[in-house]
Every structure is written in structure tokens, then in C-alpha cells.
């Protein structure tokens, strides 16, 4: 699989060098109300995706209204001042479009995929559902039950549970520490007034990006933006996209063991403070993550893996069901670490944690090869290209980058950044980020063999 990805990467690099002069990259404009329009024309296509990205998610909430942004997303398609719920669905179907939305900790996103001639209609519908939702009382009550059921389903997704608790203890009593759905008590009590207040406070022109990709004419997209989003008010004190909107998050040391011995598997997340989207060492963090890598015993690889950690995990037992290195970024903070899944009855969690710490220390000590570094860089570039498959994926990339950093790096620019990474950069990064820094950890399942955070810090700092 890796060789195929690298082969595709080489072919795509040749393609990029051949046609880059013919492709106009990402163009950006700004309306008087601060709304940013960013688009990328893709030749030889007759469809496009347009999306509106709002610089507000669960992080823009407080402890009392946590869950409001996600609640609003559910109500967006339930009727506007101009269309009923059935009217929205019928109009989208009549033009063969696809409409979707999601909420994250930092953003709310609505997007539509349509034919080129229907782009104006898609932008108009996005504006309608975003700015003119009626927030009908009956719809609120119906969606309240739907969201409660969704929350119950999320509670069955062990990785979601672990990472929510990891955020809770790491960003204690801070907006990033809250969940996207909010606690059940909030879901049950959120009112129409809460929803309207969230819109009034956060849905501002300077906090929005209209992104487009595919058969998109940038000048026409700007015209559509002015026509359908020009009325959105501007913040009283606008802050440029990518700039902090409040105090920087504090990363707290902590641990939380959730004993559930009936679970067949035990789930553990260990994190140190990572990097923000715009951090100068963002790509170094990703390269270091790639060196550590992922492993799953179900796939059957390990003994022949180029990763020393994968070899140790597979040969000695195996020591776990799987592990996954992660680097999660936010506008001004991040989490970097490892997510582990073990068999609750078979595995001693401490053994796999020891091997992970040994791998982190190996990187810190400089005992990594140029081959490992080059492989990690190739994996990064291949992953980038594979993630930009289609206009919707490109819109996601454009919108996310512009709303979180204020600009968009093209694939060619990302390649340049990644190619500059050296072995010394990775060693220096690991010694700065993984030495004498607070650690947070959450475990769910049979936690009897999970080591304490104090043990992890002591071993890591030796």
C-alpha cells in the first residue's frame, strides 16, 4: 500500500510540475463586512462544491450553553423564513445537489455540491439556512430528542469518549475542554433564545469564509457572496482570521481512569501539548508522528515493518490490539500523543506504554535514520494528495486553512515545507516537546495495569 502511495505521489508531483502554471491556485477576496471568499478553479469539470465556514463551534460557547452550535446545525435544515423543511429538501433534489453540515470545536460548516449552473442557487440556499432559520419551537423539541439519542450513540464510541475526557482534563475549565454535543442536561434545557443569542454573537461576516472548488469562477462567486451574504453584520471589533480570540489555552497535567471491567478492550490516550495549525513546527510535528506511526494486529503486519515500535508490539505477545499516533491541532494549541487499544483480559497496558516511551526517547536521542525521515516525509505528502480527492475535499482544505490561519497553502507550498524538514529538526522538536512537559492521560476499560502519569513523565524525562 505504501509503495502504491509513493508511486502515486511521484506521478502527481510530475503532474503538478507540468500543469501548475496553468492552474490559478487559490484566489481570495473580501467583502466590506469582512467575509472572505476563497476559491480554486479545477479545469475539465462541470461540478463544484461551495461551503460556508464559520469561525465558531463549541469553543465559542460557555458552560451553560455548551451544545448550542451543534443544536443549531440540526435546525438549519428544518425551515427558514423563505422555505419549509420540505421545500429545502425538494429544491436540493430538483437540482441534483447534495447538502451537508457539521460542527467541530472551532468551526461550524455548511456545504453544497452542485452542477456549475446551480452554484448561485447553492450559495443562496446556504445563506438562507445559515442566516434565516426560523428556529421553530416544534422543530427544536423534535431535534432535542434526536440529539439526545445521538449523544447516547457517541457514548458507545470508545475513542470518542476517551478523547472527550482527554480534552476535559487537559483543557480543564476552558472552552476547548467542552464536548461538541454538550452535556445531556444542556441538550434538555437549550432554548430558542440560547440559539438566537449564539447566532447574534458569532455569525459575523469577518468570522466567515465562503470557499469554492471545481467549476468555480471566482469573480462570480464574489458577486454571489455579496448578494447573499453581504447583509451579515460585522463584529464591533473584528479580529483577523487566524488570530487568537481570547486567552491562550493552558495545557494541564492530569489523568482519568474510567474503570469498566466489562468492556472487552481497554482504550488509553496519552498526550503532551502539540502544535497549532499555524505553528512554525506544524509539519515537523506531523513528520515525527509519522515516524512513530500506527499499527493494528488485525492487519497482520509488524514483524516486517520498518518501524521499531511496530516490531516490538507485534513480536512480544503481541502487546496490544492496535496503537495510533496522533497530532490534533487547534487555532492556538494542540495535542500530540498516542491512542492505544488493548485486550482487557490479555494485555498488560504498562508493557506497550513502555515500548512507546522507548520509541519517543529513541527519537529524542537522535537514533533515527535518514531513511526513516524521508519515509515519514513521503507519507505526509502522499497523505496530503490522497486527502484532496475531489472538489468537496479541496473546499474542506481551503475553508479549514483560511478560517484557522487566514491563508491557504497550496499542495506545492506544503511540499516545499515538508521537503525542508531535516533529521535534526525532528530531534530538536522531540527534545523540546517531549522533555519536561506535562502529560495528560485517559484510560477506559480494565485500568488495573495502566501506569500513572507520574511514571510516564519520569520514564520520558530520564
Automatic annotation (TrEMBL):
Domain (Peptidase M16 C-terminal): residue spans on this chain: 189-380
Location of the protein in the cell: Mitochondrion
InterPro entries, sorted: Metalloenz_LuxS/M16, MPP/UQCRC_Complex, Pept_M16_N, Pept_M16_Zn_BS, Peptidase_M16_C
Boundaries of every Peptidase M16 N-terminal domain copy: 37-183
EC number assigned by the record: 3.4.24.64
Catalytic activity, reaction form: Release of N-terminal transit peptides from precursor proteins imported into the mitochondrion, typically with Arg in position P2
Main location: mitochondrion
A GO BP entry: protein processing involved in protein targeting to mitochondrion
Metal-binding listed as a keyword: yes
An annotated Gene Ontology molecular function: metalloendopeptidase activity
Keywords annotated in UniProt: Hydrolase, Metal-binding, Metalloprotease, Mitochondrion, Protease, Transit peptide, Zinc
SUPFAM superfamilies registered for this protein in UniProt: LuxS/MPP-like metallohydrolase
A cellular component term, taken from the record's GO annotations: mitochondrial matrix
Domain of life (superkingdom): Eukaryota
Enzyme class: hydrolase
Cofactor section: Zn(2+)
Family membership noted in the UniProt record: Belongs to the peptidase M16 family.
Function: Catalytic subunit of the essential mitochondrial processing protease (MPP), which cleaves the mitochondrial sequence off newly imported precursors proteins. Preferentially, cleaves after an arginine at position P2.
Name recorded for this polypeptide: mitochondrial processing peptidase
Amino acid at each position: 500500500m505504501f509503495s502504491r502511495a509513493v508511486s502515486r505521489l511521484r506521478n502527481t508531483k510530475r503532474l503538478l510540475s507540468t500543469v501548475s502554471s496553468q492552474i490559478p491556485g487559490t484566489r481570495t477576496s473580501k467583502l466590506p463586512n469582512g467575509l472572505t471568499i476563497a476559491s480554486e478553479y479545477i479545469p475539465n469539470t462541470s461540478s463544484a462544491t461551495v461551503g460556508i465556514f464559520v469561525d465558531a463551534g463549541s469553543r465559542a460557547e460557555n458552560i451553560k450553553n455548551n451544545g448550542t452550535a451543534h443544536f443549531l446545525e440540526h435546525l438549519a435544515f428544518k425551515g427558514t423564513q423563505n422555505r419549509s423543511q420540505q421545500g429545502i429538501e425538494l429544491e436540493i433534489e430538483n437540482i441534483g445537489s447534495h447538502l451537508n453540515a457539521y460542527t467541530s470545536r472551532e468551526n461550524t460548516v455548511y456545504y453544497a455540491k452542485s452542477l456549475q449552473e446551480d452554484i448561485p442557487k447553492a450559495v443562496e440556499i446556504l445563506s438562507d439556512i445559515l442566516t434565516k432559520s426560523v428556529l421553530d419551537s416544534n422543530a427544536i423539541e423534535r431535534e432535542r430528542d434526536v440529539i439526545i439519542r445521538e449523544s447516547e450513540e457517541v457514548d458507545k464510541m470508545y475513542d470518542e469518549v476517551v478523547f472527550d475526557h482527554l480534552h476535559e482534563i487537559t483543557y480543564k475549565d476552558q472552552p476547548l475542554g467542552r464536548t461538541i454535543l454538550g452535556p445531556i442536561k444542556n441538550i434538555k434545557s437549550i432554548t430558542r433564545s440560547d440559539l438566537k443569542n449564539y447566532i447574534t454573537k458569532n455569525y459575523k461576516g469577518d468570522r466567515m469564509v465562503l470557499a469554492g472548488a471545481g467549476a468555480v469562477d471566482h469573480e462570480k462567486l464574489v458577486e454571489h457572496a455579496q448578494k447573499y451574504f453581504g447583509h451579515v453584520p460585522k463584529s464591533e471589533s473584528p479580529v483577523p482570521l487566524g488570530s487568537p480570540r481570547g486567552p491562550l489555552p493552558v495545557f494541564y497535567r492530569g489523568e482519568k481512569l474510567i474503570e469498566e471491567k466489562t468492556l472487552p478492550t481497554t482504550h488509553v490516550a496519552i498526550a503532551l501539548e502539540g502544535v497549532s495549525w499555524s505553528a512554525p513546527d506544524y509539519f515537523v510535528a506531523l513528520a515525527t508522528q509519522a515516524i512513530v506511526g500506527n499499527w493494528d494486529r488485525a492487519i497482520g503486519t509488524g514483524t516486517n515493518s520498518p518501524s521499531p515500535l511496530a516490531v516490538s508490539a507485534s513480536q512480544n505477545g503481541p502487546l496490544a490490539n492496535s496503537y495510533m499516533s496522533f497530532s490534533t491541532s487547534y487555532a492556538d494549541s494542540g495535542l500530540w500523543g498516542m491512542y492505544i487499544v488493548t485486550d482487557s483480559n490479555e494485555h498488560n497496558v504498562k508493557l506497550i506504554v513502555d515500548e512507546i516511551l522507548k520509541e519517543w526517547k529513541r527519537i529524542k536521542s537522535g537514533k533515527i535514520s535518514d531513511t526513516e525521515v524521508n519515509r515519514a516525509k513521503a507519507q505526509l505528502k502522499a497523505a496530503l494528495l490522497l486527502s484532496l480527492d475531489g472538489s468537496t475535499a479541496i473546499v474542506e482544505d481551503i475553508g479549514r486553512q483560511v478560517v484557522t490561519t487566514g491563508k491557504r497553502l497550496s499542495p506545492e507550498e506544503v511540499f516545499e515545507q515538508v521537503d525542508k524538514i531535516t533529521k535534526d529538526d525532528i530531534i530538536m522538536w522531540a527534545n523540546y516537546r517531549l522533555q519536561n512537559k506535562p502529560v495528560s492521560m485517559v484510560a477506559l476499560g480494565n485500568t488495573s495495569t495502566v501506569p500513572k502519569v507520574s511514571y510516564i513523565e519520569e520514564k520520558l524525562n530520564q
